[in-house]
Design brief:
This protein is of the alpha/beta class. The chain folds into three domains: 96 residues, Multidrug-efflux Transporter Regulator, Chain: A, Domain 2, CATH 1.10.1660; 121 residues, Response regulator (Rossmann fold); 77 residues. It has 14 helices and seven strands.
Length: 348
């Protein structure tokens, strides 16, 4: 009786599982690997169980241990799924095939140097604080073929950033490397981000207290524990580039990057008027909610703050309102599309 042959990728990985995990190279546990790939651990387990996307090493106790190459494969797979590929159709492809497939779609994480420029050809400006993070970011940008699309502003400390901002300097994104993260330093980070008019900010730190990290998280700043791995740095480079352009970085649920409105008030009023000629009143209700959320977002930004904590809270509320509006706008687009399919009134 013939036995069904295993795919080449699966066969090689099953052999690797029997190799001692003490071989050279850092290894990540499943929860950490999922975090680096910006996916829920349950998704990682399902992909492994159903599709055999990866076959990590196992420790003597049976703990799965993932290499940087394993994590990079997960990042590529998630990027392709976000582009619309079914996980089952790409799960067994080799890494070079995944990268090639991602290159064929604009905005891919491994896009060519020509593709990473925006339509105006203007480069993204990233301000760095700390020699180490500047050096590693430069290398990561070169590896992801974004170096030519980025202009770096390198500073040794936040005092230099403040002096430059006072002279009119600005940046699209800000990344800072510090040894110890305190509440006072967190307040400085938020201040410098605002003074540079940066859309996105990230901080790498070795030590920090809960108040400082919570302040920055609520303020939409991405946090990394130092030392950052090569995979984390490459991912951060891509996210800083995307965030600097005002796009949503891959897998980033909340980073302070605001999405612009899809509908102006005139368009919303026209869509809402459809409720008077169709039985469904969803366009009316969705339009009202979108307008209210937009008003609350602007109100939160203009609300008087008595302290740094107040300012962080108001910015957080504005970010939440922005995210809620984006979801409702997508729902409204779906409602409009459904009405057009039925032959009902159109929004345009």
């Amino acid at each position: 009786m013939k036995t069904k042959a295993k795919p080449a990728a699966a066969t090689s990985r099953s052999n690797k599982e029997r190799v001692s995990p003490t071989e050279s190279g850092h290894r990540y546990r499943s929860g950490e690997a999922a975090r680096l790939a910006n996916m829920p651990p349950t998704t990682l387990r399902m992909w492994e169980r159903r599709y055999g996307v990866i076959g990590p090493l196992k420790s003597e106790s049976g703990q799965r241990l993932y290499s940087e190459d394993d994590v990079r494969r997960l990042v590529l797979l998630k990027a392709l799924v976000r582009q619309g590929h079914a996980i089952g159709s790409v799960a067994r492809l080799a890494r070079n095939q995944l990268e090639a497939l991602l290159q064929t779609r604009p905005g891919g994480a491994v896009a060519s140097a020509q593709a990473v420029h925006d339509e105006s050809g203007q480069r993204v400006r990233i301000a760095t604080v700390g020699a180490a993070v500047s050096r590693r970011l430069r290398a990561a940008l070169e590896q992801t073929q974004r170096a030519d699309a980025v202009e770096r502003l390198d500073f040794s400390d936040l005092t230099e950033v403040g002096a430059a901002a006072g002279k009119g300097a600005s940046a699209d994104a800000l990344v800072i490397d510090v040894l110890s993260l305190t509440r006072e330093l967190a307040a400085q980070v938020l201040e410098m981000r605002d003074r540079l008019h940066a859309r996105m900010a990230a901080v790498s730190y070795a030590y920090g207290n809960a108040q400082a990290t919570e302040t920055l998280r609520m303020g939409g700043v991405r946090l990394y524990r130092a030392p950052m791995s090569a995979v984390e740095m490459r991912q951060l480079a891509g996210d800083l580039y995307a965030g600097g352009k005002g796009e949503a970085p891959l897998g980033l649920e909340s980073n302070g990057v605001r999405a612009p409105r899809r509908f102006d008030d005139e368009t919303l009023e026209r869509v809402m008027a459809q409720s008077s000629v169709v039985r469904c009143e969803c366009p009316q209700h969705l339009g009202e909610l979108i307008m209210r959320l937009d008003a609350f977002e602007r109100y939160s930004d203009d609300c008087t703050s008595r302290s740094v904590d107040d300012a962080v809270l108001h910015r957080h509320l504005g970010n939440v309102a922005n995210q809620a509006r984006v979801m409702l706008e997508a729902a409204l687009e779906r409602v409009v599309a459904a009405e057009e399919t039925r032959g009902g009134p159109q929004a345009s």
